[in-house]
Structure of Metal transporter Nramp3:
Amino acid sequence: MPPREESEESERPLLSGAHDSEEDTLDETAYDSSEKVVIVGIEDGDDGDWSTAPPFSWKKLWLFTGPGFLMSIAFLDPGNLEGDLQAGAIAGYSLLWLLLWATAMGLLVQLLAARLGVATGRHLAELCRDEYPKWARMVLWVMAELALIGADIQEVIGSAIAIKILSNGVLPLWSGVIITAFDCFIFLFLENYGVRKLEAVFAVLIATMAITFAWMFGEAKPNGIELLLGILIPKLSSRTIKQAVGVVGCIIMPHNVFLHSALVQSREIDHSKKGRVQEALNYYSIESTVALMLSFIINLFVTTVFAKGFYGTEQANNIGLVNAGQYLQEKYGGGFFPILYIWGIGLLAAGQSSTITGTYAGQFIMGGFLNLRLKKWIRALITRSCAIVPTMIVALVFDTSEDTLDVMNEWLNVLQSIQIPFALIPLLCLVSKEQIMGAFKIGPVLKVSCSLFYSEPG
């Protein structure tokens, strides 16, 4: 390969010499070139001026749409639903403002993760492996794995609870865990038919959540004025501190930062052209914003349903993911289609979608930090085993202890908030380094703003 001209090299927003040497091709990558979606116009071979992004195109926006919605699933997993329902039942509408701002800051962090992945062509775990000494990257890897296992326990347990609800209790919690552990391979099998097909499956699951929880919102008929006041007026009391920290922890998932920086590499981007990189960033920003707006609305539905039905009642402190369906059934009745099963369907969609994205995140985290070149099904088996073993233990121990299981889920949300710095600090450090990001590095104001917000969650 002939050497690049100096003028072209100076504009290249990649790590110096990245991916061009034969040695680098042996490194773990998020997607092989054959798996990537080709964007219209990128492979045209034209010799135009690509120093700026091309004009907006709806067709290209559609082709770039996908990674942001997969990323948004972490904002809708059973851990989020647990945080939503407990925030609504215990704090009423008073934490809706925090839900809004946590989602907004989550969007900012995810856009930075996407920026890192697009501008460098590598994801966060890979860059941590190269940029940090061995002891530091091992600490970051262990923390990322702990955060992922904690999230995965909630996701798998959430699916198992939904299966138990929809089977009228015939299938116990542990059997639901086994079903969830194996059905993720069905979804991974779909990836063989292309990234877009898999993204379509996730779109169906997100739509299922939106429809079911919107149905519940309509059944509950929450107070519109109180809802708006809860969004617009910040309010926090000592009684709701744990719920507030849980809201932040379940919205901002550390493993999701690693995931999004890898997902954006599923599109073929010519990194030698600054305008093409900027174009990708623009489209990813739009689709991620739309995806997280939808996730906020869905979380809002869940929070307000439980705020309307249980805030200020004796059941408020006892309600959790395990018994939420039964409480909803007692409060709102059966109707044409019992709300218990509506809740179960939405919870199942949340659990199934989040377990798959969790599997993806686990593959990227383990492969990136350890530079493992394994077949995808082997990596999936390893990452699923890391989560399924502790989840099965939890299911067997707590199957008959609903209160204890709900308390555990609540504290797992708090764990996520504690783990945030171990993903956020490397992200901010890397995305602000010119030798890594080139022209796409962020400024000090944005870096400090993110640091200040997450230094005091809630």
